[in-house]
Amino acid sequence: MKRALATAIGLGLGVVVALGLLAAVGRTAEPRFPHGAPIGPVMRPDTGAGEMLLLVVGGTYPTQADAEAANAQMPFADLAGYYVVPVDQFLGFRELVGDVGDYALVSAFRTEQGAQDFASFAQSFGYPATILPERVQSLGGVYAGLGQEPNAAGTGPLTHPIAASLP
After folding, report:
1. Domains and CATH numbers, the chain
2. What is the pLDDT of residues 92-110, one digit of tens each?
3. What's the pTM?
4. 124, HSE (Cβ side, Cα atoms, 13 Å)
5. With the CA atoms of 151, 91, 100 and 119 taken in that order, what torsion angle do they form, in degrees rounded to the nearest 10?
């Protein structure tokens, strides 16, 4: 009887210790979503490689560090805003903007409505927002915001190329 009681107490303590260790590991692990769980589906970053995209430009800078510093001064609350990208990621960017440096703050869109809505949103914060007058071709690379605009069918974010963005 004493042996059975000792075994039960030992097993109980073992379970408590194991649960405590699991809880400690859970508290110290990196959160999967550091800013909270996503509201919609989790999508892999789409760079729109090969697509003809509309860019909203928040500025151009000689270095990546300069672009990142400027971007840090333009928060969009909890929402994504501009992305720091190398200007050579988009064929035609330099031709439309001129000798602009090597990095820019941009947000890329497949639809004119998405670009216009974002530009208005950025301007409501007092941030610069210029929509390039022509589409530029994405060479892929750094994620620049595709997926922020709604699907015209009302089914959530636009997650795929549309006729206007195909070369």
Report:
1. 52-165 (3.30.70.1070)
2. 998 888 777 899 999 999 9
3. 0.70
4. 9
5. -10
